Amino acid sequence: HVQLVESGGGSVQPGGSLRLSCRVSGLADTNYCMGWFRQAPGKEENLVLLRKDGTTVYADSVKGRFTISQDRTKNTLYLQMNDLKDEDTAMYYCAAESEVYGCSPRSWLPSRGYVGQGTQVTVS
Questions:
Q1: In the beta sheet, which residues pair with residue 114?
Q2: Residue 111: Cβ-neighbour burial (10 angstroms; 0-12, 13-18, 19+)
Q3: Is 78 helix (H, G, I), strand (E, B) or coil?
Q4: Contact status, residue 51 vs residue 102, Cβ threshold 8 Å
Q5: Is the pLDDT of residue 100 over 80?
Q6: CA of 89: how far to CAs of 52, 54, 92, 100, 124, in Å?
Q7: DSSP 94-121
Q8: What whole-number distance in Å separates Cα of residue 24 and Cα of residue 33?
Q9: Is the Cα torsion angle 25, 56, 44, 13 positive or negative in sign?
Q10: Burial class (CB in 10 A: 0-12, 13-18, 19+), 108
């Protein structure tokens, strides 16, 4: 049974920081493309991908402000978010999709894999 559980969301003022965590359990192997995406009313955006080989791909909107990392010993994925802006307000989700789909911003489709329940980030 695969589970992804996010935590760390909350309310923060513009310019502030948050670190989101995503505890992963039940994945049978490591051949997954991990990442974070967010949903705001009427908008969904893939933010960052972490490939099996450790390379990352960031959306332009968060490049230089957000950083993805992973602690394999804790089976946890992180998203460090700095210099938060009002437009970063959204529900944030972590997801895992098989790397057979290519693990690129164009091909990554969280609904095709496993998605957590989300954590709300509010910047105001």
A1: 96
A2: exposed
A3: strand
A4: no
A5: yes
A6: 29, 27, 9, 31, 8
A7: EEEEEGGG--STTT--GGGSEE---EEE
A8: 13
A9: positive
A10: buried
State the greatest distance between any 2 C-alpha atoms of the chain, in Å, as a whole number.
40
Structure tokens of 37? 């995406």
- DSSP E strands: which ranges in the chain? 3-7, 10-12, 18-25, 32-40, 43-50, 56-58, 66-71, 76-81, 90-98, 114-115, 119-123
8 A C-beta contact, residue 81 and residue 38 = no
CA dist list (Å): 94 to 7, 13, 45, 110, 124? 10, 23, 12, 8, 23
Tens digit of pLDDT for each residue in 69-89?
999 899 999 999 999 999 999
Q: Which residues, other chains included, contact 45 with Cβ-Cβ below 8 Å and sequence gap of 6+?
A: 37, 38, 39, 59, 61, 90
CB 87 within 8 A of CB 38: no
Task: For residue 33, give the nearest of 105, 87, 119, 86 by alpha carbon.
Answer: 105
* Mean pLDDT computed over every residue of the chain: 94
Please check whether residue 55 is in contact with residue 70, taking contact to mean a CB–CB distance below 8 angstroms: no
Placement of tokens 């992963």 in the chain: 24
